[in-house]
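Section: Multi-chain targets

For targets with more than one molecule, the full set of components is provided together so that the structure can be written out for the assembly as a whole rather than chain by chain. Components appear in the order listed by the source. The example entry contains two components.
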Amino acid sequence: MLHIYRILFNTGMAVMMQYRAAMAIWLIGLTLPPIIYLVVWITVARSRGGEVGGFDPTELAAYFIATLVVNHVTFTWHMFEMGWRVRSGFFNPLLVQPLHPVHRDIVENVSYKTLTLFILVPLTAALVWHFEPVYSPQRWALVAFVFALVLAFFVRFFFEWSVALLAFWITDTSGLNNLYMFLGFFLSGRMAPLDLLPGWVQTVAYYSPFRWMLAFPTELLLGRLSEQEALYGIGAQLIWIAVGLGSMTLTWQRASARYSAVGA
Amino acid sequence: MTVIHSHSLSKTYRVPVREPGLGNALKSLFHRRMEDVEAVKGVSFDVEAGEVVGFLGPNGAGKTTTLKMLSGLLKPSGGEVEVLGSVPFQRHREFLRRITLVMGNRNQLVWDIPVADSFERNCAIYRLEREAFEQTVAGLTELLDLSKLLSKPVRNLSLGERMKCEIAVALLHRPQILFLDEPTLGLDVTMQRRIRTFVRDYNERFGATVLLTSHYMADVEALCKRVIVIHHGKLLFDGDLSALVERFSPHKTISVDLEREGMDLSAYGEVVSANGSQVTLLVSKEQTAQVTGRLLTDLPVIDLTVEEPPIEEVIEQVFSQQTAEPGVD
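Its structure, encoded as tokens over all components, is:
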């Protein structure tokens, strides 16, 4: 399987390199929002005497720069493509090959992330230089962060692939995608640190998969979690991975049975 | 050995329907009307290893749907189907490694990378041995004249070039069964002939079974001894191509070359064409011998040939005999 992944990775990189402009535009679209939220929240903090909800400007900078990185590593785009794939017959050749289509999407995702690292790393360095964020994680938290980041990728990937598969039932999934993105925007901690949101939103986020896709690894990097909270969070991520994988497998079985193989 | 077994195979699509107009659009917001379209209705047949079988039928007959069910792309609504001992829709890896499906323009080549890279991808996906893979690529490159195409990105290839590469990439794992849906669609005559020759060679060399749909009768005549005719989702005929002509064509054509020009032969049969001294007549099968005798006795004949009508006409005849019904291909 590793050999298949290596070959798919190489071809994935080759394809991505054909679309450099599109790739750069996607990246701008991903990196601009956290920078805007950062500027807005710093302004709010300064207008309130230097902090908001226990976050001063350097901590806010640390949070939003970290979310930029975590979001980049974990985001997927298959929800926006799946409808087209179903309608155009793109799945036809994939379904008669001895490889589950999800493997291609995982490798394609990793190829994109690898290639865009060359832009993301200097961009993050520039933001760190400009906003002077403060990170104070202990060594164990850094290790836990890396582990949680990988798990966050799979939590998000499996859930979003499951949502994407609803395109087999719904002709136009853009509304559904927007609803999902809207929920994720609040509950994952992309709009603001979850500590700044009302208590009931924090509770909902805690019991949803969204928190474990973004806020949890970000808080680990910031050094805001205890060892017990970190272990509990990783456990939650593993549970959500199992739920996401189960949901994806079940949805795929039903979706492929329903597939009407349109297109030539 | 039977490699494909289909018994009462059927497929029904459920499709939304609504009348035109804003009012009906609004109504459909609250009540969506669905309709069942039976694309394939209880089709049964067996195919032996090494056979080349042509699927014939007009657009919407159900032949592509049948092919998709046999290859595992679609789940049948009813009936039984077994291909190489497997139930196709379960899509077991071992089964998928032994078949291939080539359909129109949407296939296995990756649009933005050179053809050779797509070959490498399939080598990995099908877990092929390096040596066997290289041998196959070399063989296909020679047979399909691909050497100048392998390093080009797929998007830069012409339709014919792309189709050759699509067929090659679909055969890298040396499948035992080839499902070919319109493999020569849109190609020029030379390229069509080349693809046909290649498919025949592949069938002979590897003993592979081929199921083919095509609107080009030349494909069917060149490759398929046996044909299965499907119309409105039902099997109309399954047998030798020659038997199809025998069964469905009540006429033969007599072409006569005369010593003199401008002679009226309408008394002998329906004049299909008259070009100077060359006249083509359409006569019923029962009268062929008698009309031939009369022509040779009555007229100054230089040459005379009796032929079956072109296969296209026979097929047209078959379909025109059926009641028109909507269908899904």
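Chain B touches chain A at residues 13, 68, 71-75, 89, 91, 93-94, 96-97, 99-101, 103-108, 110, 112-113, 117-118, 120-127, 153, 181-182 (CB under 8 Å).
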